[in-house]
C-alpha cells in the first residue's frame, strides 16, 4: 500500500469531489480515480460511493479514513525524525572531559547544548586525556574535551578555549599581598601538584615553563583531585599553578594571583575522524555550540 494512495483517499474524503481532490493533490482527475480504485482493490472492499453530485464514504471507508490519517501522520513524524537526526537534533552523545573542566567550560557547554538540542541525550564521563583518546578510538565516547596535544593521528581536534595559568597561594602568604606575580617569584616555594601519569601534558608544560625561569618546582605533595590540591594550598602545604578558570572554585584560605608571563593552555575538543560519517551531525552540532559557548565566556 503506497502512501500516495492514502493521501489521495484522504483528500477525496475531505473534499467529497473528485475534481477538487485532484487539484488538491496535484494530479489529473483520472489519475486520482485510478488511485482510489487501486486502493479499494488492495483493501478488498468498497471505500467510497460515487454519485453524480458528490462522493460519500462507505462504513468501511469511514473507518479506513481514521487509520489513513494516523498512518500519514506517523509517516510524517518518521520523516521529520530522520531530518532532525541529519541536523543533529535527536540522538545520543557521549562526551569525555578532564576533571578540571567541571569547574569552568563544561557547565557552559552542556547548558547551551541542552537548551538548543533538548532531544539529544548527553552522557558525560570524567576521564583523563589518555583515557579519552582510548575511548574515542574504541567508540566508547563521541567527543573528548581535553588539553593539547592530541597525540592519536586518527583523531581530529578543534581549539575551544585558551586559558593562562595562575598562582594559587595560601591566604596569609607574603606573595598574596601583591597584585601580580612572575613565575620566578615562586622559585623558592614548595609546590603541590598532580602525579605526572595523570596529567602528563599539563605537568610537562609547567615544568618546561619553570625550567625556562631557572628552577625546577619543589613538589612536596601530590594529589589527584583539584579540590584536594587547593585544600593543601589552604593548609599552607605549598602553592599550586591551576588554569585560570579554577578561580571560580572559591575556597577559604586560598587566593589567586595572575602570572605576567604565564603560558596559555589550549583546551580542545577531539573526535574520531570517521565521525563525519558516523553520527557526524550531532558531533558537529556539539562542536559548534562548544565553540560559541566558550567564545562567549572568553569575550566576557
UniProtKB/TrEMBL annotation:
Residues in HTH lysR-type domain copies: 1-58
Keyword Ubl conjugation in annotation: no
Pfam family of the protein (one): HTH_1
Sorted UniProt keywords: DNA-binding, Transcription, Transcription regulation
InterPro entries on file: LysR_HTH_N, LysR_subst-bd, WH-like_DNA-bd_sf, WH_DNA-bd_sf
Taxonomy, superkingdom: Bacteria
Entry-linked CDD domains: PBP2_LTTR_aromatics_like
PANTHER family: HCA OPERON TRANSCRIPTIONAL ACTIVATOR HCAR, TRANSCRIPTIONAL DUAL REGULATOR HCAR-RELATED
Protein family according to the UniProt entry: Belongs to the LysR transcriptional regulatory family.
Protein name: Hca operon transcriptional activator HcaR
Gene behind this protein: hcaR
Amino acid at each position: 500500500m503506497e502512501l500516495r494512495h492514502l493521501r489521495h483517499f484522504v483528500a477525496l474524503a475531505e473534499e467529497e469531489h473528485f475534481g477538487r481532490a485532484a487539484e488538491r493533490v496535484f494530479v489529473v482527475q483520472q489519475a486520482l480515480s485510478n488511485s482510489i480504485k487501486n486502493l479499494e482493490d488492495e483493501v478488498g472492499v468498497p471505500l467510497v460511493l460515487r454519485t453524480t453530485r458528490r462522493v460519500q464514504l462507505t462504513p468501511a471507508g469511514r473507518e479506513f479514513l481514521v487509520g489513513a490519517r494516523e498512518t500519514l501522520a506517523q509517516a510524517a513524524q518518521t520523516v521529520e525524525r530522520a531530518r532532525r537526526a541529519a541536523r543533529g537534533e535527536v540522538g545520543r552523545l557521549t562526551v569525555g572531559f578532564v576533571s578540571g573542566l567541571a569547574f569552568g567550560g563544561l557547565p557552559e557547554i552542556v547548558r547551551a547544548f541542552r537548551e538548543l538540542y533538548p532531544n539529544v541525550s548527553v552522557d558525560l564521563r570524567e576521564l583523563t586525556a589518555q583515557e579519552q583518546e582510548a575511548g574515542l578510538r574504541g567508540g566508547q565516547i563521541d567527543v573528548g574535551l581535553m588539553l593539547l596535544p592530541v597525540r592519536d593521528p586518527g583523531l581530529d581536534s578543534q581549539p575551544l578555549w585558551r586559558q593562562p595559568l595562575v598562582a594559587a597561594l595560601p591566604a596569609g602568604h607574603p606573595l598574596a599581598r601583591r597584585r601580580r606575580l612572575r613565575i620566578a617569584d615562586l622559585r623558592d616555594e614548595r609546590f603541590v601538584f598532580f602525579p605526572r601519569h595523570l596529567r602528563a601534558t599539563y605537568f610537562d608544560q609547567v615544568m618546561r615553563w619553570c625550567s625556562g625561569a631557572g628552577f625546577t618546582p619543589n613538589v612536596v605533595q601530590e594529589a589527584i583531585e583539584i579540590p584536594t590540591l587547593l585544600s593543601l594550598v589552604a593548609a599552607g602545604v605549598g602553592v599550586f599553578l591551576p588554569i585560570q578558570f579554577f578561580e571560580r572554585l572559591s575556597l577559604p584560605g586560598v587566593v589567586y594571583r595572575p602570572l605576567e608571563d604565564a603560558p596559555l593552555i589550549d583546551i580542545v575538543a577531539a573526535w574520531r575522524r570517521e565521525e563525519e560519517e558516523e553520527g557526524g551531525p550531532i558531533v558537529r552540532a556539539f562542536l559548534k555550540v562548544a565553540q560559541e559557548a566558550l567564545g562567549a565566556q572568553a569575550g566576557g
